[in-house]
Amino acid sequence: KTYQSLLRLKEARHGVYLSPLRLLALEVQERFLMDDIMCSMTTGEEEDIIPGATIMSCTVEKLRIEEVYDIAVVDECQMINDRDRGYAWTRTILGIMCPEVHLCMAPEAKDIIIGMIKECNDTYEVHEHVRDTELVFEHGYYSVEKDLRPGDALIVFSKRKVLALASYLQGKGVKVSVIYGALPYQSRKEQVRMFLEGQTE
After folding, report:
1. Percentages helix, strand, coil for the chain, rounded to the nearest 5?
2. Helix axes 185-196, 22-34, angle to 10 degrees
3. Coil, strand, or helix at residue 59?
4. Which residues make Cβ contacts (< 8 Å) with residue 168, sequence separation at least 6?
5. Could you tell me which residues come within 8 angstroms of residue 138 by beta carbon, excluding any fewer than 6 positions away?
6. In sequence order, what are the beta bridge partners of 40?
7. Sheet strands (E) in the chain
8. What is the model's pLDDT at position 187?
């Protein structure tokens, strides 16, 4: 869903990409720069302002609400329902000054977003996308010892747990890539590259 919107954003004279995650903002900036589109980036932790950039890639809280854009892409709009951060999507959707706004979201957010648009007497189009690969849920308990296969991504919810799990797996002879929020972007990128190239499992 985001890919199609980013293709449109590349055509902007002055556009913005708004992300829930610092890593996504950085990835979009990098992708645009690789395509020779000048793109700045700002998050709560980092800023990379490129003179003459036509696109700004940022976390949603960093939107400059007073600025006028010609195309905007707001990612993961289902986050409007988040108790702690939902205000940022509400502020963005209602306040962004832009004639073309792409609101990318999971289907469960569609009704609330359409309701907001109608309240503003604005117009909209809905484009539904089909997942390219089937999402399969595992029913039952997952055991790292028995169920771990090459190519798996294990998600835990603290840096300490990430490092502990990586250490445990390395002790079992499993080559792992490690990514966590405070890891510098270049280090994160290198860990992903190693995984994609098969240097880690």
Report:
1. 40, 10, 45
2. 70
3. strand
4. 144
5. 147
6. 56
7. 15-19, 39-42, 47-48, 55-59, 71-74, 101-103
8. 87
Blockwise average pLDDT, block size 10, the chain, 201 residues: 92 96 89 95 90 96 96 97 95 96 95 95 92 84 90 90 95 93 80 90 95
Q: Which residue has the tokens 């990128």?
A: 189
Q: Check residue 136 and give its pLDDT.
A: 84
Comparing C-alpha atoms, which of 80, 74, 61, 93 is closest to residue 15? 74
Whole-angstrom distance, CA of residue 55 vs CA of residue 9: 8
Task: Tell me how far apart the alpha carbons of residues 116 and 119 are, in angstroms, rounded to a whole number.
Answer: 5
d(CA 69, CA 101): 9
Give the pairing type, strands 39-42 and 47-48: antiparallel
Distance CA 122, CA 115 (A): 10
Tokens for 95? 């306040």
Q: Quick one: 40 exposed, middle or buried, by C-beta within 10 A (0-12, 13-18, 19+)? A: buried
Q: Which of 79, 113, 85, 77 is nearest to 1 (CA)?
A: 77
Q: Which residues pair with 73 in a beta bridge?
A: 17, 102
Residue type, 4: Q
Whole-prediction pTM: 0.80
